[in-house]
Amino acid sequence: MICPFCGFEKTSVVDKREGTSGKTTRRRRSCLKCGRRFTTFERVETLDLLVIKKDGKREIFDRSKLRSGVIKSCEKRPVSADDIEKLIDEVEGELRRDGKDEILSKRVGELVIRKLKKLDEIAYIRFASVYRQFADLSDFEKELAKLSKGLKNS
Q: What is the pLDDT of residues 75-92, one digit of tens each?
């Protein structure tokens, strides 16, 4: 593994852990030249999933794009990076278990919303407001009412 800081080609593994889902391996590495540490992740390479957007265009499923959206909704919330990775792993896992090469963007969004709702209610509302394109305050109020009703029934 090449050091991302100095470019030296030899590093040593300082720590190795299985990811929370058991589908990734996290390795903490140290450069043998500059001594700086960095983290790498290993996961099984799978076939590309195509996401069918609302306008009918297709694009390759992109974990980093999904991660970016989830991170934005979780800003300044008590949600750890591990929680976010676990959520993304779960969403991708469900999509792959569907056994389809192409998935609707709506399916991805609804999976994220369902999982965020369990993880953090504020992050859920933030994500839902962008995903469902809330137009005004009444859209927020309707979603908050549904969330509040769901909490009372729990």
A: 999 999 999 999 999 999
